[in-house]
Amino acid sequence: MCGIAGIYAFKRNQLNDIRQICSNMGDALTHRGPDAGSVWCDEFSGLALAHRRLSIIDLSPAGSQPMVSSCGRYVICYNGEVYNAANIRSELSRTGVSFVGHSDTEVILESCASIGLRATVEKLIGMFAFALWDMRKKRLQIVRDRLGIKPLYWTFTNNNTLLFASELKALRRHPEFSKDIDRNSVSSFLRHNYVPSPNSIYRNVQKLNPGHILSISMEEEKPRLSCYWSLEKVYGQGRLNPFRGSDDEAIDMLDELLSSAVKSRMIADVPLGAFLSGGVDSSTVAALMQKQSDRPIKSFSIGFTEDSFNEAKYAKEIASYLGTDHTELYVTPEEALAVVPFLPKCFDEPFADSSQIPTYLVSAMTKKHVTVALSGDGGDELFAGYTRYMQAERMRRLAAVLPNTLRHWLGKIISAHSPSAWDALFSHLLLDKKLRNPGNKIHRVANALTENFDQTYLGMLSHWTDPDDIVLDGFEYKGVLWDEELESKVPDFLDRMQFKDILTYLPDDILTKVDRATMAVGLEARVPIIDHRIVEFSWRIPRKMKIRNGESKWLLKQVLNRYVPKELVDRPKMGFGVPLDAWLKGPLREWADDILTESNITKYGLVNPAPITKIWNEHKLGQGKWHYLLWDVIMLHAWAEENA
After folding, report:
1. What is the tally of structural domains in the chain?
2. Backbone φ, ψ for residue 132 (5° rounding)
3. Whether residues 531 and 618 fall in one domain
4. Which residue of 195, 533, 541, 560 lies most exposed, with the fewest beta carbons within 10 A?
5. Which helix (H) or strand (E) holds 214?
6. pLDDT tier at 58 (50, 70, 90 boundaries)?
7. Residue 273 is part of a domain; what is its CATH number?
8. pLDDT in tens, 141-154
9. Which residue has the higher pLDDT, 366 or 222?
10. Closest CA to 2 of 596, 522, 534, 568
11. Taking the alpha carbons of 491, 494, 495, 499 in that order, is the dihedral positive or negative?
12. What pLDDT score was predicted for residue 373?
């Protein structure tokens, strides 16, 4: 994996310092590519490309970047891994194309030179973000993979210079970069705990949407966006060509697709392993890796002493059954908390999914043993694994049998008691202690009884439900989660929840978390479950193969059960969480107190301090469980402090 950055000052031909500026931008990404760094520059055209290399395939100088095509016309600056590069290479070789090395970079470059960028990216299987410079047409094109596995930001300076980079910290190195915070993005962040695409925390800086190409040239001047892969089209094709086979045929097909995806992602010229949490997704990936390996694969897990947050014991059982070479790390609260001050620098813009902490810790531990790790991310979105899908479906069915008047009456009765009151009741009745924040969940049921179901689902995804009320001059962006036309395009409610998550939560939370945490330590993460061929297959199967008899991820679990006994994985979903509530009341309290002082909040002028102070005091006194809302505000201001 690598880091890329670039400058295209197409209206200012002679820039004596463009090479040095671009080099500085690349240096900000050294953590993504610690093995080598280089800059390619066409000063007359105002174009410079910087690359930081993490050597995975073809460790020789033949794989170095930026790379010039054999015809001398094109230059590529590439971050990612393409798993069908060998097949594309063979096709090109048959047409007379010759190669210097065996890197996937060279294959992509020569394919672009031979058949064009659009035709090339439509062939690629993998994760990527890259820039292609056409020296003849003076045209720059930047492209991002279909699911948004690899990041890419872009912006224009006031002098009409295009900047792009893998991370914001590289853009900040440019002397003309504006650090003007987008307050609308702050509002969006407080709702979601991440900044939704295509926006970023900075005004006029955007994330390139997954499956898109941005083109700009001296002749065009204005950038042109085009889409080469669309989830909406994939959904439509899945409805037109549904899977009509039997259960066994579906299991066979998914097994074959997953096995192929895993096998191709085990190709590397460096040591390789797998993250193993003990859940369905990571266990499936580890099982398929071990099936195709002639020696024990290396697997890695992390554990906590708090039992309700500890999955390491389950991961150990899976590893023992599969026969992997397993390494586990039990983290003390002190070790976990030591990571917290580093998070704003690691994640580059406000990000408050608290599982960022264990993700970083397991990445750092894994990097000591391997350079590449396969991860099980994406299974929940593709095969309906999230608990909220089941909850929303149950609420929808419940509401459907109740008269409107009774629905609204019940909703008001439930809402009349605060979430903390419901928490206390659950605690008093000694109900399921692994159920986190029951009061908030019950209030979501109340909302479902009084609202439409898309609004209910938005509420289930929301942290701050009215962020504009606390952000000063902020008006959150309304994206796909508010799209009222989506119901006619994707009529099934379960499909619509998954559709929204694949477009938002998957790239902007899950994949962002994995990319930043792994890249911060120079580790490459590969995600076989979201191979785009598996994504496309998941939209062909009927809902009964996703949820059956109250069991989520039914089809994926049937594949796993071929390799791991059901009893080893048949347990309630835990998630990759941390005891944030207890930490904010205990070891993190003093640090949080400093961040959440009225003077500190006022210093940055982003939010109204009064409601923050109120819930912080309530949380410390045990009068409410506001840790997720507080963590959002803490991460926002910790980021502001780091990047002020």
Report:
1. 3
2. -125, 125
3. no
4. 533
5. strand 212-217
6. low
7. 3.40.50.620
8. 999 999 999 999 99
9. 366
10. 522
11. positive
12. 98
How far does the chain reach from its first CA to its final CA, in angstroms?
29
Per cent of the chain over pLDDT 90 is 73
Whether residues 370 and 309 share a domain: the answer is yes
What residues pair up with 39 in beta bridges, in sequence order? 50
Task: Give the number of other CB atoms < 10 A from CB of residue 400.
Answer: 9
Q: What is the pLDDT of residue 15?
A: 59
Q: What does each C-alpha distance from 110 to 88, 96, 97, 471 come to in angstroms?
A: 10, 11, 8, 49
- Domain boundary among the residues 212, 229, 246 is at 229
Same domain, 7 and 132: yes
Whether residue 432 sits in one domain with residue 416: yes
- Choice among 89-93, 114-118, 578-582 with the minimum mean pLDDT: 578-582
d(CA 76, CA 40): 10
**3-state SS record for 9-24:** CCCCCCCCCHHHHHHH
pLDDT (average), residues 522-543: 97
Q: Chain-wide mean pLDDT for the chain? A: 91
Q: Which residues are catalytic?
A: 2
Task: Read off the tokens for 179.
Answer: 């650090």
When pLDDT is cut at 50, 70 and 90, the band that residue 88 belongs to is very high
What does pTM read for this prediction? 0.92
Question: What is the C-alpha separation between 245 and 78, in angstroms, rounded?
Answer: 40
Q: pLDDT tens across 6-29, in order? A: 999 987 654 569 999 999 999 999
Give, in order, the Cα–Cα distances in Å from 627 to each of 196, 500, 630.
Answer: 21, 26, 5
Q: Which domain does 496 fall in, by range?
A: 230-578
**Using only C-alpha atoms, what is the Rg of the chain?**
25
Residue with token string 């903390």: 420
Of the candidates 47, 51, 56, 46, the one whose C-alpha atom is nearest the C-alpha of residue 23 is 51
| Residue 400 or 526, more confident | 526
In this structure, what token pair is assigned to residue 222?
Answer: 């204005």
- Are 546 and 596 members of one domain? no
How far is residue 448 from each of residues 392, 411, 496, 583, measured CA to CA in Å? 8, 8, 16, 31
> Can you give the three-state secondary structure of 588-604, one letter per residue?
CHHHHHHHCCHHHHHHH
Say yes or no: 181 and 266 in one domain: no
Position 193 scores a pLDDT of: 96
Pair 483, 360 in one domain: yes
More confident residue, 424 or 451: 424
User: Nearest CA to 153 among 208, 202, 197, 203?
Assistant: 208
Per-residue three-class SS string for 346-367: HHCCCCCCCCHHHHHHHHHHHH
For residue 367, with 0-12 CB atoms within 10 Å meaning exposed, 13-18 middle and 19 or more buried, which class applies?
middle
pLDDT digits (tens, 9 = 90+) for 440-486: 667 666 666 666 778 888 988 999 999 999 999 999 999 999 998 99
CB 50 within 8 A of CB 131: no
Q: What is the DSSP string of 593-642?
A: HHHTSHHHHHHHTSB-HHHHHHHHHHHHTTS---HHHHHHHHHHHHHHHH
Q: Report d(CA 286, CA 275) in Å as an integer.
A: 8
CATH number of the domain to which 192 belongs:
3.60.20.10
161-184 per-position pLDDT tens digit = 999 999 999 999 999 999 999 999
Beta strands 212-217; 224-227: pairing state: antiparallel
CA 125 to the chain's CA centroid: 18
Structure tokens given for 553: 């991820």
Q: How far is CA 309 from the centre of its chain?
A: 22
Q: Are residues 205 and 215 in the same domain?
A: yes
